[in-house]
Specification:
single chain, about 475 residues, alpha+beta, four-stranded antiparallel sheet, 14 helices, 14 strands, about 50% helix
């Protein structure tokens, strides 16, 4: 199964989060994704101004494990896997603080907090989408009970780990998890309060008060333990808080990111064809030399001229042959291949490639999904849209994934961030004057906004199941204004 989630990441970046779920009944799962990017001609983005190197610099890809899915109530249950594994690793490292046990203890802290973060996000979203006031109040009470049980269960483990066998730097791994947990509980609870406020119903004040009790408890807990707190009047402190939050997030989620090893795809085949190109050029030069030598003999002026001309043409033939073979190979092979490893064991690979293609090379179904307006179609005959095709093939080995993790891992997420900043260099100014007649029959100048569209059509293919999705971003010199999923 392939699932995608697309959002605006920042002012100039869009994020594609593509989840590849490996089939539990198949040893090997093979996925493919094609993405066509339709670019307005006015932006002057083409194969001459925007190279593969430029593309991969702007098209940042990170591969990480899909966080195991647990309900908040399951995490709160001491008999469930997350708290069980956490408790087991704490007991083991306290008794035998070996390098292996310390590494497992640190990994279990990171995994527990990652699972909690995901569960909190999904639970608050579920409460937000609940339309029944009575059911929502029930869910909020469960949320408070479960969060209290989870934070209490984690913090009780401090007694297990705070012993003389554990060095301070190892004990700090627990503190990092504790501080991160307090931060995400506080943040998600604030987000829940805001979403309830947006619903504008009569139960908001009551729900807000009981949710704020949880926030106050976490703020007091952080203060007692010396964790950083947000201060309303201190920008310097809050800059440090933001930096600290980011560092903790990267630390906690670091175990989900997989080890990757990238190399050029089809290297041996490419070198063979490039050698063949050199051989073709050498055959041409040799034939010319032999023909003139046979006709005019050795050490003659015609032979000398023929050798010079043959040498000149040999290099051109070699380069033309290389170009021809490279073009043919690009359609069959990918730009690079990346091996994916978990705990030093290979669990799969993915290949990716990028190229500019003509509209005639684009499947008709994709052109229909692009669905240009009449004026756009007329303009396209004069100033055609440029089309980038990005291809990705991924293979995951279910057996290797299962053998290298104690949690039920469903697959991997490929998180792609596409930075559009280079696309704005040839844009017109974002604001243009517009003239209208006002109520007094005088002219008036108002401000209009110049915008451009970037269309993404994505084709997913897995187990002969095919699906197309279209997204469009509206942007200008000031950045991305809007992201839409088009029908």
């Amino acid at each position: 199964m392939i699932e995608e989630f697309v959002k605006i990441h920042d002012q100039f970046s869009i994020e594609f989060k593509v989840g590849f779920t490996a089939n539990i009944k198949q040893e090997v799962s093979d996925f493919s994704m094609n993405m066509w990017v339709f670019i307005p001609n006015a932006l002057d983005i083409n194969k001459y101004t925007y190279s593969k190197t430029d593309f991969y610099k702007d098209f940042k890809s990170n591969v990480r494990l899909i966080t195991p899915i647990y309900l908040l109530r399951d995490i709160a249950n001491p008999e469930a896997l997350p708290l069980q594994l956490l408790n087991k690793s704490f007991q083991k490292v306290a008794s035998q603080p070996t390098a292996t046990n310390i590494a497992d203890y640190e990994t279990q802290i990171k995994m527990f907090q990652s699972i909690l973060k995901s569960a909190l996000r999904e639970e608050t979203l579920h409460i937000k989408n609940c339309r029944s006031i009575k059911d929502r109040e029930f869910l909020i009470n469960n949320y408070l009970e479960n969060v209290t049980a989870i934070t209490s269960g984690y913090r009780k483990l401090k007694q297990v780990i705070h012993v003389h066998t554990i060095e301070q730097n190892v004990f700090e791994y627990y503190l990092f998890g504790d501080e991160f947990m307090s931060n995400i509980v506080e943040l998600q609870t604030f987000k829940l309060i805001k979403s309830l406020d947006d619903l504008n119903d009569s139960s908001f004040e009551t729900n807000k008060d009981i949710l704020l009790q949880l926030v106050h408890y976490e703020v007091n807990y952080k203060q007692e333990n010396g964790y950083l707190l947000i201060e309303k009047e201190s920008k310097d402190n809050n800059r440090t808080v933001v930096s600290r939050f980011g560092a903790l997030k990267k630390y906690i989620e670091s175990h989900l990111f997989l080890t990757i090893k990238k190399r050029e795809d089809g290297t041996i085949v490419r070198q063979f064809y490039y050698s063949l190109a050199a051989g073709i050029s050498m055959i041409f030069a040799t034939v010319i030399a032999f023909a003139f030598q046979f006709r005019y003999g050795n050490f003659t002026l015609p032979l000398f001229i023929a050798l010079v001309v043959a040498y000149m043409l040999k290099d051109r033939i070699k380069e033309l042959s290389r170009f021809y073979f490279a073009h043919k190979l690009d359609s069959r092979y990918f730009d690079n291949r990346t091996d994916i490893s978990l705990n030093n064991s290979k669990i799969g690979w993915y290949k990716e490639s990028q190229s500019f293609i003509k509209e005639q090379q684009t499947p008709q179904e994709v052109i229909q999904i692009r669905n240009r307006s009449a004026i756009m179609e007329a303009e396209n005959r004069i100033n055609d849209e440029k089309i980038i095709l990005y291809r990705l093939n991924m293979l995951l080995n279910r057996k290797d994934i299962n053998e290298n993790n104690v949690y039920p891992i469903s697959g991997v997420n490929n998180i792609i961030r596409f930075n559009v900043y280079p696309f704005i260099q040839k844009m017109d100014d974002a604001h243009v004057p517009l003239y209208i007649v006002d109520e007094q029959d005088n002219y008036q100048i108002i401000e209009g906004e110049k915008i451009y569209y970037l269309n993404f059509i994505i084709h997913f293919n897995y187990l002969n199941q095919s699906e197309y999705k279209r997204y469009r971003i509206t942007f200008n010199r000031e950045g991305i204004k809007r992201l839409e999923q088009m029908e």
